[in-house]
Structures are given as C-alpha cells and as structure tokens.
Amino acid sequence: MPSPYRALFATPGSKGFTAAGLLGRMPLSMMGIGVVTMISQVTGRYGLAGALSATIALSAAALGPQISRLVDRYGQRRVLRPATLAALVVSAGLLLTVRLDGPDWVLFLCSAGIGCVPSVGAMTRARWAFLHRGRPELHTAYAFESVVDEICFIFGPIVSIGLSTVWFPEAGPLVAACFLAVGVFWLTSQRATEPPPHPHDEHRAGGSALRSAGLQVLVATFVATGAIFGAVDVVTVAFADEEGHKGAASLVLAVYAAGSCVAGAVFGLLRFTGAPARRWALGICAMAVSMIPLLLVGNLPFLAVALFVAGLSIAPTMITTMALVELHVPRARLTEGMTWVSTGLAVGVALGSSLSGWVIDSAGARAGYGVPVAAGAVAVAVGCLGYRRLSRPVPQRGGTHEEHSERAERPLA
C-alpha cells in the first residue's frame, strides 16, 4: 500500500470502522441492481423493475438526510441501529411479496420503506473528519473512501446479479440485507472513533445544512450525475440481456467501477493547493463527455472499454465534492451535509433508472444510453451556473472564529 495510505491506517480504530463500513455500504451497489434483476427475472417487466429501483432511491433521498441529521444530534449508535432494523423488516417484506407473487402496490410500499437505510459512507467519512480535520491525511482518507465505494460497485453487482441469476431471484437483495445488518451493527459497536453528537448546536448551526448555497449547487448537480449512474446500471443489464449474456452485465458494471477505483487510488496520492471548485467543475465536464461513446456501443467488449474510461472521472470528482462539503457546511452538520450529496445522487438514480427503464421497454437498450448522455449535459449546465457559489467559501458556523478562519483559508483537496 502506498505510504500515505499506510500512514492513514496508523490511527487506532481506523481499520475496524473501515472494514465495517465496507460491509455496511455493499447494499448501496447491490440492492437497486438486485431488485432490477429480481423483478426482470420473475416478471420480465423492466419498466416495473426500474420504477421499484427508483422508489428505493427516492425514499432514501427523502429519509437519508433526516436520519443523518439525527445522527449529528444524538450519535451514530443511537440512530443507526433502529433505522437499520426498520430497513431489514421492510426488505424482508419485499422479498416475501415477490416470492408469493403479491400485488405491485405492496412491492412499491416495501420499496419505499427501504429508504430508511442509513448512509454508511457518510458515517465513515464523518469519522475520518473527526480524526483528521484540518490535516493532509483527510484528503487521503476521502480518496480511500471513494476507492471503497468503487470496490463495492465492482463486487456488489457481480454478487447481486450472479446470485439472482444463478441461485434464485431474491438471493441478491437478501444477501445485501445481510451485509447491511452486519456492517451497521459492527460499525456502531466501535465507540472510540464515533464523532461526538451535537445535541445543543441546532440553533448555532443555522438549521438544515441544505441552507448552504454551495451545498445546494453540489446537490443539484449530483441529481443529474445520479441519473447517469442509474441509467447506466439499468441500460447495461438490458443491453447484456439483448446480447444474450445477461449475467455478463455484472462484469461490465464492475469494469465501470474499476476505472473509478484506479483513478481514486492515484488521486489520493496527489496534493493540491488550487481552488477545489475548479477541479470539481472539470470532473463534472469529464463525466458528461465520457457518456457520449456509449451511443456507439455495438457489443459488450466495446461497452466495457467505454465504461472503464468513463469511470476514470468519477472518484476524483467525488473526492473533491466531499472536500467542498466540508468547506461549505457547519461542523455540527457535516454528516447531514455529506448525506445531502448522496441524496442528490439517489434522486438522480431514481430518475435515471425509471426513465431508462421506460425507454428500454419502448425503444430498446441502445436507445436507453441516450438518457445518461442527456443527464451529463444537464450536470454540466447546472454546475456551470452555480460555479460562483462554490468558488467563494462561506463563513462557517458552529465553531470559534479562529476555527472558521483556519477552515476558510487552508487549501482543500
């Protein structure tokens, strides 16, 4: 492991919460694609599959920031455990409804309940910020977290799609629920690295983190970015199915995540002193441009190459995004602020997966790749319109004047 990463894990407790976080966020890449695979296997209706995946994402978008806001106030252990138990119960209901051939409305009801799954990635990033705030190690930590995200997206679809196609249709979402249970309860058992709650900072922190103009730009842009991800997942499964190799969809999506993983690992070794907003804007533009070759795909090998190249811009953009979140939201709202970014992605995934599902049903998988291309164009437009807000950091609330000045002046990764 490169020396910056080795130094990062010299911190006591870091290995434990990282391992727990890896397990706990596996459902992020397994549940949505697992539901798409499960429903398409059982009913053959990609429109329904995409709509259910979108319902899960929209529910997570609505409930996730509220759960994280409670975490900021009361602590991870007190909030995450009951939220996870609720998510596990409704996940079991979804799988039983599919197995018993229940009505569609029950499927949608259970899918909506799954939205109370906590944002485990935001929880581990908050722990890194608690341990390394204001130090160069935090950039490396955010880079490592992006690599962990991509590891989940490399292996998650492989496991989820593989289990659902080889074993039984409900196997992928079932294993995802098991990962969630083990990861969250293991993470919350580690108290030494848990960030302290801020039960009395509600007024001083100025209410919701989303009141920050900079965070609003990040969230709005990532709605469009999420649409890219959601559409690519659904269309790739359908494209592989049309090619007669549906099981290969997991491998192709793994290549997409591998590109991001490689880029994130390299990006974490670098140090930057310039404005993070400029790097963020370049990353958004690169993601949008990388979608264009997907319109030309004719076979699975070409699709895999195109998605690997497209993945190279994802992790660096996400790393810089988290640095911008830290700069634009109060310390007492950091977990909530990070979750709002995930919320923007979730909303976008919902829109992208739903829209692409209907396009596939009406015009075929190749036409579906027009959805991520259009979403990329929207992301660039929104990012450019809000660039000035991101390039001018706002004074922080919830700390001392000296802390505010130090955070506003130090360069961010």
Written account of the structure:
The protein is mostly helical and 413 residues long. It has helices at residues 3-8, 14-24, 26-42, 46-74, 76-99, 104-113, 120-132, 137-166, 171-188, 213-242, 249-267, 276-290, 300-311, 314-328, 334-363, 365-368, 370-385, 387-391, 401-409. The longest helix has 30 residues, at 137-166. It is globular.
CATH topology: Growth Hormone, Chain: A
- H and E string: HHHHHHHHHHHHHHHHHHH
CATH architecture type:
Up-down Bundle
Low-confidence stretches are 396-413
* Amount of beta strand: under 5%
Characterize the overall form: globular
**Oligomer status:** single chain
pLDDT averaged over residues: 80
- Gyration radius (Cα, Å) is 20 Å
Main sheet characteristics: none
CATH superfamily: MFS general substrate transporter like domains
- Summarize the amount of helix as a percent range: over 70%
Instruction: Tell me the distance between the termini.
Output: 20 Å
- Kindly state the number of beta strands: 0
The CATH class:
Mainly Alpha
Number of domains: 1
Keywords:
single chain, 413 residues, mainly alpha, Growth Hormone, Chain: A, 19 helices
Concise summary:
This protein is an all-alpha fold. It is 76% helix and 0% strand.
